Structure formats: structure tokens, C-alpha cells
Amino acid sequence: MAKIKMSKKAASIDMTAMCDVAFLLLTFFILTATAKQPEPLPVQTPASTVLTKLPETGLVTLTVGQTKDGQSVFFGMKDRDVRAKTLELMGEKYGVKFTPAEIAQFSLIEDFGVPVSGLKQLIAMPGAKRNTAGVQPGIPMDSLNNELKDWVMYVRKANNVDLAKDKELDFAIKGDAKQQYPQIRKIMDLLQDQKINNFALVTGLRAKPKTE
Q1: Sign of torsion, CA 69 40 116 124?
Q2: How many Cβ atoms sit within 10 Å of the Cβ of residue 186?
Q3: Residue 62 in contact with residue 86, Cβ under 8 Å?
Q4: What is the pLDDT along the chain (212 residues), one digit of tens a residue?
Q5: Which of 54, 67, 172, 197 has the fewest beta carbons under 10 Å from its own?
Q6: Cα separation of 171 and 197, whole Å?
């Protein structure tokens, strides 16, 4: 008896539903993602094998690096409400009146390095120009004009008193690997003068040596 030959057809899978899901996920991530802003003072941190993650909130970072004006210090705060309240307190201290719009715009700036007298001009700049090399000279911290000390003092006051946060702020020093120790020591002394004895030193991750 003759065998009946079955016609072979190529199998196909309808990918329409999967493509729809992929595009929905892509759209979601694009709309919810936050673009990483360039740092106003890029530094190359020293390498270390110790891996301790810094907190995502309640963190103040003092960045020490080199600008065209020499060694400079930049100030950074994680929480927007703390940044806004600290600016108000610094404005009262130095006699500079900031408008609600300027305070709201400043709350979006995580790191900066200008004297209080130059903050209005910095806030008015577009973000791309604000982070251009050479625009921010650093925060004064000499014996005649130590604004950095006031920033540290008022950010703690804004966090603990005015905003009644439950947790004390964490402090971290982020210095360039080529930075001289005396400059880092000045920052340590400034923190310790205000009874801040626990602070982190930011480093980059270095691979551990392989063991036989």
C-alpha cells in the first residue's frame, strides 16, 4: 500500500505580543530613568578593596580636587529638602535673599563649589554650563572667610532642627588620589571641630589579588 506523504510546513511563532511588551518596558525605563549629571569637580578616588556602600539619603559629601584656581572644595547634599533649607539659612547668615524659585532650583543641584555671593549666578545658569570646567572655583575655607564651615554647621541645623529629621547626617570626604594629605587633613579638622568624628573616605573599588 502506498504511503501518504505529508506536506511539511515551516513552523512560525507570532512575535507581535512579545514585541509589544518589549517596547512597553523600554518606554517605561526611558520615562522613569534619571540621567546622570556630570560632576562639577571630577576626581579620581584612590583604590581600595573595601566595599562599603554610601547611604542614598542623609549624606553630605565634601569633594576635594584641583581646579584652575588651585585646590578647591565642593559641597554636596543628597536630600532636596535639606539643600533648600540650608540655602535659606546661609542666605540669612550672609545677607543674601533668595527667591522661592531660586531655592527650588538650588534644591536640584547636588554638588556645587562657589562662594555664597556667586550662588545666584550659578543657580541662573543652565545645567550644562554650570558643570563646565572652570565655572565653579570652590567654596572658601580660609581663616578670614570659612564658608565651608558654615555650610557644614547649617546643613546639620536644617536637618536636625528645622526639618526635624530622625537620623543624623552622614559625612563623606571624596578626594583625588593625587591630592596632598594636608588638604584632606584640613577637611577632617573642620569636621572634628564641629564634633563630627565619624565620616567616610570615598574610594574606588580595586580587585583583590588572586591567591594560589
Answers
A1: positive
A2: 16
A3: no
A4: 556 665 555 556 666 677 777 777 777 667 665 555 566 666 677 666 667 788 888 999 999 887 776 778 999 999 999 999 999 999 999 999 999 999 999 999 999 999 999 999 999 998 778 878 778 889 998 888 999 999 999 999 999 877 777 788 999 998 877 767 788 889 999 999 999 999 888 887 655 555 54
A5: 197
A6: 10
CB neighbour list of residue 112: distance below 8 Å, 6 or more residues apart: 40, 74, 75, 76, 119, 122, 136, 139
CA 182/CA 12 separation, integer angstroms: 70
Q: Measured between alpha carbons, how far is 91 from 95 in angstroms, rounded to an integer?
A: 6
Q: What is the distance between the terminal CA atoms of the chain, rounded to a whole angstrom?
A: 72
Q: Which phi and psi (to 5°) does residue 92 adopt?
A: -65, -40
Are the CB atoms for 160 and 168 separated by under 8 Å? yes
Find the largest Cα–Cα distance for the chain: 110
Q: What is the pTM of this model?
A: 0.76
